[in-house]
Amino acid sequence: MSAAAMAVGWRKSIGSVRSFIGNSMGGLRGGSNLASWALAGGLAYFLWVKPDRETRREQEARAALAGNSDGYVEKRRPIPDRQETGAIYGKGKRLDKSED
């Protein structure tokens, strides 16, 4: 194969790649291609990216507020008094002081 034939082969393959890329982007070329990609990117940002970021910021702000307040939550159940539950016989706690 001669050098001229190899150069033609490379040009043809580069042209095929450019054609494939152009067709995969919808066949638009030049300014209209750039404008359509800018519009698609803008729509994607305002419909998906921005709301996702806002919800993340709101969740982080809520978590920060919850962390700053004294939100202590007891994780264990209290141990019941065995005398009140009847496990130990005898006199239980009296709530009325008038009975004494």
Structural features:
mainly alpha, 100 residues
Task: Write structural notes for this entry.
This protein is an all-alpha fold. The chain has a domain at 3-66. It contains 3 helices and no strands. The N and C termini lie far apart (118 Å). The longest helix is centred in the middle third of the chain and has 38 residues, at 31-68.
- Strand % is under 5%
- Total strands: the figure is 0
**Largest sheet, if any?**
none
- Give the mean pLDDT: 75
Helix content: 55-70%
Helix count from the secondary structure assignment: 3
* Structural class computed from helices and strand pairing: mainly alpha
Order of helices and strands: HHH
Coarse shape:
rod-shaped
Q: Please compute the radius of gyration using only Cα atoms.
A: 38 Å
User: In angstroms, what separates the terminal alpha carbons?
Assistant: 118 Å
The low-confidence parts are none
Transmembrane segments: 30-49
Biased composition (Basic and acidic residues): 72-84
Keywords: Membrane, Transmembrane, Transmembrane helix
Region (Disordered): 59-100
Q: How is the secondary structure organized here?
A:
Layout: H1 3-24, H2 31-68, H3 82-85
Structure, briefly:
The protein has 100 residues and is mainly alpha-helical. The chain has helices spanning 3-24, 31-68, 82-85. The model has no long low-confidence stretch (mean pLDDT 75).
